[in-house]
């Protein structure tokens, strides 16, 4: 081997690395500009005062202490937890049911898949207006249906006892079809030999579903549950159209409260504090997934 060959090999490896980094550079720049820098800037501003009528100054953890004493923050956080508990399990269960149904060979299967998936592709503002037409008092479709049965109408979005349930129904309707696609793809990867072996052993369909299908779908279920949980903390568009957080913050969720504090009350530093808290909650969910749950549900 000549002395020039190792040098040529090193040069080729160096050019390969440079080429790889140049290909990654646009994505790295966009990620740093629109994700990492905003997060760091938000964290930085959360330690400062608002600065109205003067220069903003460092206040340390005062904004976080104020947040812990904020009755509205506690209420919207409680609302968000209740909303997540209502929408996440329901969306997952409905998505799995629809996926198992449309995975079978039957007439009209393509139409059913399209019908279940259609709400997913609708814009959020359009979805909010559709359901607003359902829930509008007196002349909304829901009240019209109740009146046809002899019942009186109801202000569904104006009643604190029903507004959160109305929003949960809307979110489940929109998201279940999207999660169905993941379950449908996972069902089609289950080897048919397992079903044939279960049939030979005389196992019932329910026993096969409970003992074989569900465990094999656990990685998909974990992925869907994490996404559904994150989505439950990101709801804002529908609230702007339908309730604006009312009545009396009964339907206000954390992201909408951040929007309200930043753009209605013009308190950007407190909004930054709330945003850091939201990011911390979502980061904790993601870490739980990657560090703990992934290892327990994958079959190697």
Automatic annotation (TrEMBL):
Protein name: ABC transporter permease
A GO BP entry: transmembrane transport
GO cellular component: plasma membrane
Membrane is among the record's keywords: yes
Keyword Metal-binding: no
PROSITE patterns assigned: ABC_TM1
Family named by the database record: Belongs to the binding-protein-dependent transport system permease family.
ABC transmembrane type-1 domain mapped to chain residues: 77-291
Keywords: Cell membrane, Membrane, Transmembrane, Transmembrane helix, Transport
